[in-house]
Amino acid sequence: MARNDLQGSLDLLVLKTLSQKGELHGYGIVQHIQKASDELLSVEEGSLYPALHRMELNGWIRSEWKVTDTNREAKFYRLTAAGQKELQKAEKSFEQLVKGVRAVLRYA
Amino acid sequence: MLIFRRVINSFRRSKLEKEIDREIKSHVEMRTADNIAAGMLPEEARREALIRFGNRTLTRERVTAVDAELAFDTFWRELRYAARQLRRSPAFTATALATLILGIGANVVVFSVLNAMVLRPLDVPQPAGLYNVVHKQQGYDNQSYPDYLDFQTKNSTFSDMAAYRIETAGLSTKAAAYKCWYYRVSGNYFDMLGVQPALGRFFHSSDEHGPNSAPYIVLTYDFWRTHFDSDPHLIGATVDINKHPFTVIGVAPPTFHGNEMFIWPAFWMPIVDSPTNEGTDFLSWRGAHNLWILGKLKAGVTPQRATDNLNAIARELARQYPENDESARLVKPGLIGDMFGDPARSFLAGIMVLAFLVLLAACANLASLFAARTADRSRELAIRLAIGSSRWHVLRQLLAEAVLISVLGGAVGTVFSAVLLKALTRWQPFPEFPIHVTVSPDPKVYLVALLLSIGSGVLCGLVPMRQIWATDSAQVMKSSGAGTIVFRRFTLRDLLLGVQITLCTLLVTSSFVALRGMQRSLRAPLGFQPQGVLLAETDLHMGGHSDASSTQIQKRMLEEAGRIPGVTSVGIIDETPLGTGGSSTMIYRMGTTDFRPSTSAFGAKYFSVSPGYFEAAETHLLTGRDFTWHDDATAPKVAIVNETFARAMFGRASALGQRFVMGDKDIYEIVGVVENGKYDSLTETPWAATFFPLAQNPESDTSLIVRSPLLPDEIVPEARRALTQIDPSLPFVFHTWTDALALVQFPARVATASLGVMGLLAAMLAVTGVFGMAMYSVSKRMREFGIRVAVGAQPVQLMRSALSRPIILLLSGSAAGLLLGVIASQLLAQIVYEATPRDPLVFAGVIVTMALLGLVATWIPAQRALRVHPARLLREE
């Protein structure tokens, strides 16, 4: 349960990143999450790549080898329609999780 | 179908790993570049990037693990989903399964038989390059022993050549006597085939030193096990073959049953030995074409080159011995030359094609069912597409259903056919002949079954592909749910159904033709009356009697048998017509001096009979007299001929008192003419035949004909007692003449049965096909019909529009099938007696059958169309 939720939050972060930035490679995703979270969240590469692969196999994201601005080749990921829907679901369930956890913490 | 993806994945695993490495490399490089930009030294920047990334191998492994796990999960999920979908529509599933079980099962059975009889090589250690060397003229396949020796020593294309004959003999020990089938083989037989003995030793060519020089036999494993209780001390013991002592020197391995597929011998004996008193004159007589040659080609020699080589030798021999015509032709071994092989192979190939067509018809049916189902589910599919499922994903799901159902059907069909084939293998159609039909399925058969199953599944599943690709989800959901399907044009599905009906009619026609032929052959004039006759068969050689002393014993047999109460007449013939034997000879006109095949008048079947045979067999004597015991060695030679013989030689003139000559230059006077008969097969054209008196033409083969109004069971004990008191060592086989005829009727029976089964299958598939199509078209047009009824359409009009297409297809398909059936019957005429489709009963039968099929198939859809209730229908929509 806990593991699923953590994995769920990683998926959520990645999907959200891609929905905001449109198209990004793995390194870019790591950098973006770190920057956007004010250095609070740091994504482990060892978890990121298996997650990306799984999401791609699930049809949420699509990948393509391209050349970066700095003329380096990298694998770029973008969201699919199914991924968009998955993102909405994940956001909703995350909000519920947060609400639930907050309620428990507030319980006196 | 993720199973394919999984297979592909395992191939592309290394490709995936390379891709991950490439991605990791690009990741590390980008961080290194950022680090340098942030002011680190290149060396340090790279090290930091690597440390930040962590364990790269572990990451790679985790990515591939995700890949495998997901693929496997999805595979099971899709399979479970497919199973659930199928469970939800049990009627559809049951229909599809039944269709596939029948279709695939029929193919597996036919393929197994084809595999066993045609494709599978002989069950010997090195089967490659083995051929039977037979005579060029079909039906006259045997070679003579001197020819064999010449072919063997003079050829340059065979590594070795063996000769063999298949015969019967009485084998007796102190304890018991048996009638056995055995091979007489040349000494090199076992060495050439590369077989090793299970016990003792085999004989070799070095054992042959002229006639009767090697009185040894080698037993088959089965015979040793069943008749000698696997006694290892039997090696070196003596047994009597036709009362002549032979030493058992070895036992063959359990898998070796000789080189003929269906005739399993009890033992092998060197060909130079003779188990009779007749001597072994055939060993030196070039005209005695009575053995088979089995040759093994040298490596790299083509059959054509070998044939040319042997025919060059044959031409040389023809110059030396002009009275014989030698020639050679290579045929695949195992099916007794091409006497049995050729018709069997072409018939099997034909049935295989039919079975395959039946399966195609089944697939066509299923494809229509799947297409209909897809159309019914179009709303569900449209929703799935709309919420982001890919078309490929939806298609994969349908394909999973199709393949799941076809593999399931294939598995059940294969199990059924395996059971059937096992039974067929155990089955011995004729107890007195060692015929074994070994058709057990082997891995090749199972592979074919699997391929057929998957193939049919993919074929059926792909038909709805166009529907899915063309689905416009918005359009479908807006409309009432039913996909709009154009009903005007004739579609591929109509064509499939038409072909299927054609095929069905063809098979139904063929089975009717075969059935009528069978029925006619049972009533055809045979030239004798088998009903009410008990046959007692033996070979006097088995009792150690010579041909010359046979006649006295046969006379006593007739006397003893005639005395049995209830017996009305008795007679003896050497080999019954339509039995297994029957010899033919050349007949020459008076005045012929040069005796060779080309100067003969014609060939004729010949038999030796006792006085009274014609009366006992109820063969009508048209003119002249029967033989008497006075027609013996001291009297002038006489013969009784049949009508064909008389007409061929003397035209309209009376044959009585006329004479003819045979190859041995003996002159025969014709004393009687009998009606024509069937001698070799039911389908033969009338043969000339001549009968000689036993006393002038002694024969040890004896078929005693006992005619009586009593049941066979009532006479057999009496007959056995009466006959064994003449010579207790003579083994007799008792059976009714009708039973004995089962062998000649066997090919026709098999043909009729297999055509009947195929016809039945095709008919069932045609019914489900027409039914499915009619039902579907009616169900899709219920709304239209409702409106039409509401505005005053008559039932007839509804029926016309609902059923016109299936009925047009039915009519045109039936007409085409009937036409093809007429053509196919010409092929059938080789196997089935007087197969002709120009038979009003066949025509009527086919037309009634097809009409009934049509009625059955369209009845329910028509009812449904007529019961349209406009108000309710419109309310529902």
| Silhouette of chain A | globular
Strands of the largest sheet of chain A, in order across it?
1-3-2
Largest sheet data of chain A:
3 strands, antiparallel
- Percent in helix of chain B: 40-55%
Q: For the residues shown, what is the average pLDDT of chain B?
A: 79
The low-confidence parts of chain B are 481-488
Query: What is the β-strand count of chain A?
Result: 3
Q: Biggest sheet of chain B: strands, sense, closure?
A: 6 strands, mixed, barrel
Number of helices of chain B: 25
Portion in strands of chain B: 5-15%
- Subunit arrangement of the protein: heterodimer
Tally of DSSP β-strands of chain B: 21
What gap, in angstroms, lies between the N and C termini of chain A? 25 Å
Indicate the proportion of strand residues of chain A: 15-25%
Structural class of chain A: alpha+beta
Mean pLDDT rating of chain A: 85
Largest interface: A-B, 25 and 31 residues
Q: What is Rg of chain B?
A: 37 Å
Total number of helices of chain A: 4
The main sheet of chain B orders its strands as 2-3-8-5-7-6
Explain what you see.
The complex is a heterodimer of chains A (108) and B (877). Chain A is an alpha+beta fold and 108 residues long. Chain A has helices spanning 2-21, 26-36, 45-57, 81-106; strands spanning 23-25, 61-67, 73-79. In chain A, strand 2 and strand 3 (73-79) form a beta hairpin. The longest helix of chain A is centred in the last third of the chain and has 26 residues, at 81-106. In chain B, 53% of the residues lie in helices and 14% in strands. In chain B, strands 2-3-8-5-7-6 form a six-stranded mixed β-barrel. In chain B, a hairpin with a 2-residue loop joins strand 6 and strand 7. In chain B, helix 4 (90-119) packs antiparallel against helix 21 (742-780), helix 5 (145-154) packs across helix 8 and helix 9 (337-376) packs antiparallel against helix 15 (492-523). Residues 481-488 of chain B have low confidence and may be disordered. Chain A binds chain B through residues 25-27, 31, 44-46, 49-50, 53-54, 57-59, 68, 70, 72-75, 80-82, 84-85, and chain B through 19-20, 22-24, 26-27, 29-31, 33-34, 52-55, 58-59, 62-63, 65-67, 70-71, 74, 387-390, 393.
